[in-house]
Design a protein that fits this description.
It contains six helices and eight strands. It has 192 residues and is of the alpha/beta class. The structure holds ligand AR6. Ligand AR6 binds next to β3 and α1.
Length: 192
């Protein structure tokens, strides 16, 4: 069952699921600075998109100073075999490494991904819970940061209209649900 919230000029949906199956126009990836793939959701997205995604990431790397995507930044590639036409690769902060910069860098991932949506007229995007797997960001801390960054973008802009969080496990879904009720208050509604 999904949870829907009217936020700013758009809608935020939280649901348990596999992001590689989403039919939003874009999906976000929790990548690393090398853009060469990895485990977790990054590995799943590369497997589902097929080998052309790695080639597109290599092409994107060539446009970056030193060939690395800095923490908090995002780049767009096609989605190839995915249902989503685009993948927006974000590099979340490694919690133990970034210290007091971690919240700002995590918010920056979401803000930059949503900026790319605006620049490419992408009306819907699904995010995973960036940084809360291998990168060790406690999900109770990450969820309100992610949702506040999305709220700020939806309050300021019409595009995208739909922001989904495709969350892989119950603990993560519960953390985002609690943070959303807290941040979005009485605007909560239940979907199908
Ligand atoms: N759909 C949705 N969420 C998923 C999926 C999926 N198919 N698979 C895993 N998750 P992580 P990070 C959840 O570790 O912490 C990679 O090696 C997972 O349960 O994928 O940002 C990259 O290359 C967790 O809730 O990303 C980087 O090196 C969330 O996605 C590094 O991991 C994020 O977990 C990035 O670490």
């Amino acid at each position: 069952m999904e949870q829907r919230f009217d936020v700013g000029r758009g809608v935020v949906v939280l649901e348990r699921g596999d992001i590689t199956r989403q039919d939003t126009e874009a999906i976000a990836n929790a990548a690393n600075s090398t853009l060469l793939g990895g485990g977790g959701v990054d590995g799943a997205i590369h497997r589902a998109a097929g080998p052309k995604l790695l080639q597109a990431c290599r092409d994107a790397k060539r446009t970056l100073p030193s060939g690395l995507l800095p923490t908090g930044q995002a780049v767009l590639t096609p989605g190839f075999r995915l249902r989503a036409a685009h993948v927006i690769h974000c590099v979340g902060p490694v919690y133990a490494r970034e210290g007091q910069d971690a919240p700002r860098l995590l918010a920056s991932c979401y803000a930059n991904a949503l900026r790319l949506c605006r620049e490419h007229d992408i009306r819907s995007i699904a995010f995973p819970s960036i940084s809360t797997g291998v990168y060790g960001y406690p999900v109770q801390e990450a969820a309100p940061i992610a949702l506040a960054a999305v709220r700020d973008a939806l309050e300021a802009n019409d595009t995208p209209h739909l922001v989904k969080f495709s969350l892989f496990d119950d603990t993560t879904l519960e953390a985002y649900g609690a943070a959303a009720r807290d941040l979005f208050g009485g605007r909560a509604g239940r979907g199908s």
